[in-house]
Amino acid sequence: MATQSISSSETLKETLASYALRCRHQIASKYPALAIALYHHRNTRGQDMSFYQRNALIPIYQDDSQNIVILKCVQFGGSEWLLCAMMSKLYQGWSILYSLPTEALRNTYVANRIDPLLQQIPFYKYGIKTAKGESDAAGLKHIWKGSARFVGSNSKVGFVEFPADMVIIDELDTSNIKNLTLAPDRLQASKHKYFWQIGNPTIPKYGIHRAYVDSDQKQWHIKCPACNESQPLDFFKNVVREIGENQYELIDNDYNIACRKCGGKLDRLSVGEWVARYPDRGISGYHVSQLFSPTVSVQEVYNQFIAGQFDQTKMQVFYNSCLGLPYHGTGDKLTAALLESVAMDDYLMPTKAKDCTAGIDVNYPFLNVRISEYDNNKRKAVFIGKVRGFDRLSALLKRYDVRYAVIDNGPEWNKIEEFQHEHDYVWACQYTSTQRPDDLDISLIKAEEKARRDDIQKIVIDRTMIIDAMVADTLQGNNRIPKNFRSLSDGEWIDEIEASTRILVETETRTYYAWDEGNNADHSFHAETYDYIASLIRDKIGDMTPGYA
Q: Cβ(423)–Cβ(360) under 8 Å?
């Protein structure tokens, strides 16, 4: 702005107002998504958008590439960016196909996020008022001259008969990959053909990570004030260093980010730049980590890393949700040699005990059982074996004064319900495989004290996550077994423990981790898991049920 004489405060106000208006018009013309964020949008708390200490976000809002990929951590601000970008395109009259993993999630997202925005923000309300159409259903919104169809990837219906200028895939890795192959077809009649993908990664070279690998692979670089070295932030180069096999220590005990070249302190929230590894590629890709998020401290990220040292689920959360990186955790299993080093104690199992928990896997007519007593909150096996029939099981549980028991809910469910009616301390467990690692805090197991169906206590829990937690508990020395464990059930127990291995399962619709026994029996392995669940229920709800006197 040219230098000019200011003769009064009114003239100054008018000059500043005029300058601000010109800036606003320039931003709106060049960066419409950023203008939406700065002048209209509100976050989930109803607050104005702020880019304070969020320097890495601004270039993303300015990016209007035809193909964009965001490989992200959680608590990054990606959802707000997508909403602002979507609104800027709707204002231009575009048709947008917005895909979420499931129709149920689509309905929740529209009801809890989209509808409140359209009802509360004046600019968006005006867009509804001046819309070319009247549809305001969960799946279709007309705003200004544009339209947005929200679909769940689990249904093919949403990917047909809707010509789009832009396709947005939100949370790619938890979506139905097979159905998403239909999405690009919706762009065929458009002159724009925008295709944007965003999500938390899961495993290497799958889903959003596969898309990022094919992109120009931009990383956020900051400069060291001491040595001027420009560098991306890497947890294993700037926060911790390896001092032994799978052993790490903090580089800076005050949780500062350290320069990988000179060791000086870096300001992780300072101004930086996005640097592309492959600048000639036509896909604009960004990798976003919590290491440059103002809402998450380095200490919080480090604590997540420490929590995952023994637990594959928690380590996957650390990589996927904190670092925004894929994680490959397969091949784990419990072996006799490992159990000898971390779990074996110098004792033989007693013939009875007090205040115990039990885990029961059903292989009817046989029932594999693990019963534990507690010593300084550690599970100590007092019975490992199998019995024939529920009458003998009842007598066994009485002999060991079992207060909390968890039984497999799968086969023989009618017999199990009958058994539960007779023993009110028994919980039926149903495995599921639909939860993400960060959906469940194992320490706050989703077991309601009175979560009953016809007075039947039931718990539903992710299979892989709870087995990961049981294995982690064992590796940390909280599961004690007798010195003769190799000969239990004539060696059958250790064979069934060793049967399960953590593997990667790939199907047409999704890829996920699972514990797999191959063609071998693994009933004892699951009895161990159910007893671990019983111990969590014991810790969570206390001594609420009397068991046997």
A: no
